[in-house]
Amino acid sequence: MEYLNSLINAEPNTTKIVLSTGIIESLHLPVSFKYLIDTACAKKIWYDGRICSTVDAIEWVAKDCLLRRLLILNAEVLTDCQCFRLMPKDTYEKLPETGLPALQTMHLDKICLIVKLLSPNAIISEYLAYTIAPPPYANIHQTVQFLKKIDVLDDSEDVTWLGCRLVDIPVPCQLGRTLIFGILLQCLDPILTIVSSLCTADPLNIPFNEDIDRLWNRFTIYIQSRIKCERKRLAADQYSDHFIFLRLFHVWQNHLKNNISSLYLTDEHEFVLNGLMEQLNCTRSKILSALRAVNLVQCQGPLSTQSVSSKSDNWPLVKAALTGGMYPNICAVDQRNGIRCLKSAYSMDISLHPNTVIRDFLEPLNASGQGILNASQWIVCSKQRDNIKYATVVLPLAVALFAGSTNLGFGQFSEIQSSPNDDNIHFFIDEWIWMIASKSNFELVMKVRQHFFRFYQYLLVNCSDLNKWRGDSTTLEQYLLLIKTLASMFANEDCAAGFQNCPQIGFKPVAKLPNHYLLSINSHFNWPHQIDDISAPAHRQNVSEVSLQFVEKQYFLLYTQENCSSFYQNINASYIENVIGKFVRPIESPNRHIYVILYSKDPDILVSLSRVQIQKGDIIFKEYFRNVVPVYEVLEECASLKLNAPSFEGRLLSSLIDKRVGNVIMDLFAFRHHWVHKK
Questions:
Q1: Which of 109, 300, 402, 474 could potentially form a cystine with 324 if both were Cys, beta carbons 3.0 to 4.6 Å apart?
Q2: Is 360 exposed, middle or buried (0-12, 13-18, 19+ CB in 10 A)?
Q3: End-to-end CA distance of the chain
């Protein structure tokens, strides 16, 4: 809102440009934009009922959507406004006249749940058939079956207590169920971070090869390699993509705790990362507020924030919560015939997305992975199409205790008639997941399941009754003892399976954030020309005539022997006037931007790029970019573009350089991570 207010209250001579998206299309803003840049694309979510997963895709929008976006321009106020659509003309001619309604492509879990709450006696498919654009019947049927499987609906399509609680939590039903398990197992903080990450764009996402074939080049390969290395480092040999979310959020939170300023960009990816992490943090806060609103998290007592996060440093317990919450998204590793392959209840042919770190786990030559694989063949995952995008290797004990229906009973087994002395039994969790265990172990597992899910129902039914959570209670004492035992048991099982000790994850998130990163960046790059005498009409007239089409750039090289931070701390107005004032003052004007590029010797590197501004008669440097750009890269680019390369010998304190060379240097700073470093 702060940024929108600054846009609405901008000076009349401000040139306003809008990048059209689905969000801006739905907003009615009292702003007269002069230029509209329309990417003609939109992110769409397609639900595949066959495998109960969604697919994110960037697609061309329909022509009616383009016309709605065009209405952002107000031709009555600005007669010379223009729209630029970033698409070929032949592609535009092939676009459909109208797009598909969201109801026909989206995941219907919350829709079906709301329908059942609004009309308890109606059949969901019949109710949705009366909508203007009814969704496909197959999607409705598959969604209802999925909701029955995770106990949001019962066999009669009636809403359960779990469904009543999930309807007010702003996440898909499966992720909402994961939050319930996080509360019950007292590890809500990491579960909350993982769920929020799954609802937010992944800053370390690697696209499919077929999605980038047309853009395939050495820079893309380099970026993919860097992202894979970073994901592997954050995974810390835990064979978990969900663990990466925790580590990344922890690193970002530490960055805020240390009050490290981010008003200069070390590279474009840092800009994107900070924006996405800020969005993740906002999502996390909204989910936590929703949990408090439905009394699943309370101010004090056994459901206080401190109590439900008391076991947050126990990663094996967090994996167990993921197992129960993400069911039925569970896969198994099949090692028959010497080949490791993945199978699930929905597909017998599953491949791995480039994102996931468990690729190494399935490599035949991975010795540590083979040891863990001998102890556990179960993987909890999030899928797109038939591809596992995020996965975590979990223990068989977690699958036995928390997967399947909450009403699983002792009748879910059959005796094995292999030998008279063998008391092993087949333990069936559902129609696809089954295990072999001794009868004594099976009985212990079933007793623990019954005790756990008894309190699971107790929480869902009585979370709004505050009197149930005050004072001493035998039920609460038994529950706390059970969770303490499970935490110790999963930690021992994890160690016995061969998993390495993980870095600490039980940290307390920052409660108060500094100013929003994206807003501070926007304000930092807001470049209004400073005028000392605002009342001067002639001066105002000159400013109003300034157009972005006639802005000229001038670049100066400035040599320093200090590091970048020391340089900006030690410079003053007299120094700047001495080294560059005689060049700047004669050519300074509203339609000329002057930049200073700071470089040093031994090693020969560029370290910063700043814009020169005059405020109250003094020349100042406003830093835009800070990074380490080797001088040889500039020289190579000058040679390839046939430009006269400037001298970086340090003999002149400051010198004017070719504008084209300055533009090359600015590009190197602005898009630093797109360039391959030579060893």
A1: 402
A2: middle
A3: 46
